[in-house]
Design goal:
There is one protein chain. With 323 residues, the protein is an alpha+beta fold. Helix content is 72%, strand content 7%. It folds into 2 domains: 211 residues, no CATH class; 96 residues, 2-Layer Sandwich (Alpha-Beta Plaits), CATH 3.30.70.3040. It has a 4-stranded antiparallel beta sheet with strand order 2-3-1-4. The longest helix is centred in the middle third of the chain and has 42 residues. The chain starts with a helix and ends with a helix. The relative contact order is 0.15.
């Protein structure tokens, strides 16, 4: 409730005039409670700002981590969901045998494409690398084997790639299989841990925001204990008395949610330049991801619900003690 001198005095006459109109009285008091609680918040701007700033920064942290994880996921996608599996054939294989093995792999339902790299192509690649050109000229013959570059289908998943690698290792003529996509499995595992961490962090910080509102309402009710006692003595219900505090909790949550969304947008804007440079380094394959609009819109609403819940629990407990 607000400290304006006429506010509290107006409650009893309005309630008395509206005694025969319960719905109108209920609606009238809701409007008064919302306005009076907002005026009270603005009557102490420094304290209100500090409270909503702490809550807003706490709620912005999970959004920042979510933004970071989303862009790490995009980086993994830019590097390829399924990297090629390299099969090094045994030395001395004839070209016809190599092509037959490649055809066998192409017929599998879990294989998208198979490329054949000849020993000469491998030698040419080594010759382009710094420091290898002179050394290669001293070799009497080409020691490199044929290599099959097998590209798994995108929808088979990590387990499907693992089965494909196991089958390839058992094939006749294949000496060694190197799964270049194993890094992706490690990245997915790390991202899963990160996502779970963000959820736990969000839950903990949401609880912290709820407790901040609850403590603020507790202090407010304690400072107006005598006024509340008078209202209870003249017949005001608990719902009637606590309604302004519930709206105060809603205002705290809503304003802190708006600050959290604003801070998240600032973080997103700060990352635009470095992420754009990183995208250029990958020939534009990296898609810069921002926070979805529905999440930014949901944060103030969710924070308002948290504020209402904190105020509801604390005001009910405080009023129960007062009776």
């Amino acid at each position: 409730m607000d400290q304006h001198p006429n506010d509290q005095l107006d409650i009893a006459p309005r309630t008395e005039r509206s005694r025969g109109r319960p719905v109108a009285s209920w609606r009238e008091h809701h409007g008064w409670s919302a306005a009076a609680s907002l005026r009270r918040l603005f009557s102490r701007p420094l304290g209100t700002f500090l409270t909503i700033a702490v809550m807003g920064l706490a709620l912005a942290l999970p959004l920042a981590f979510y933004l970071l994880l989303a862009n790490v996921q995009n980086l993994g996608d830019a590097l390829g969901q399924n990297q090629a599996v390299s099969a090094f054939l045994k030395p001395g294989q004839a070209g016809a045998a190599v092509e037959a093995l490649a055809t066998t792999l192409r017929e599998r339902v879990d294989v998208a494409a198979v490329g054949v790299k000849t020993p000469q192509q491998g030698m040419d690649e080594l010759a382009k690398m710094q420091g290898f050109g002179t050394a290669l000229h001293t070799l009497d013959e080409n020691p490199l084997p044929y290599v099959l570059e097998v590209m798994p289908k995108p929808d088979i998943g990590a387990d499907g790639v693992e089965r494909l690698v196991t089958d390839m290792r058992a094939m006749h003529g294949i000496d060694q299989v190197q799964d270049a996509g194993s890094w992706r499995q490690r990245l997915d595992a790390l991202l899963a841990v990160g996502n779970r961490t963000v959820l736990v962090l969000a839950a903990m910080l949401a609880l912290a925001a709820l407790l901040v509102v609850a403590n603020t309402v507790r202090v407010d009710i304690s400072s107006r204990a005598e006024e509340i006692d008078v209202l209870m003595l003249v017949g005001a219900s608990r719902a009637f008395v606590r309604r302004p505090y519930l709206y105060a909790g809603i205002w705290y949550g809503l304003l802190s949610g708006i600050i959290a969304a604003g801070v998240a947008l600032v973080v997103e804007f700060a990352l635009v330049d470095p992420v754009t440079q990183l995208s250029h380094a990958y020939d534009g394959k990296l898609q810069v991801g921002g926070l979805p609009w529905w999440l930014l819109a949901a944060v103030p609403v969710g924070a308002a619900v948290l504020g209402w819940l904190g105020a509801r629990l604390m005001s009910a407990w405080q009023l129960r003690k007062a009776v």
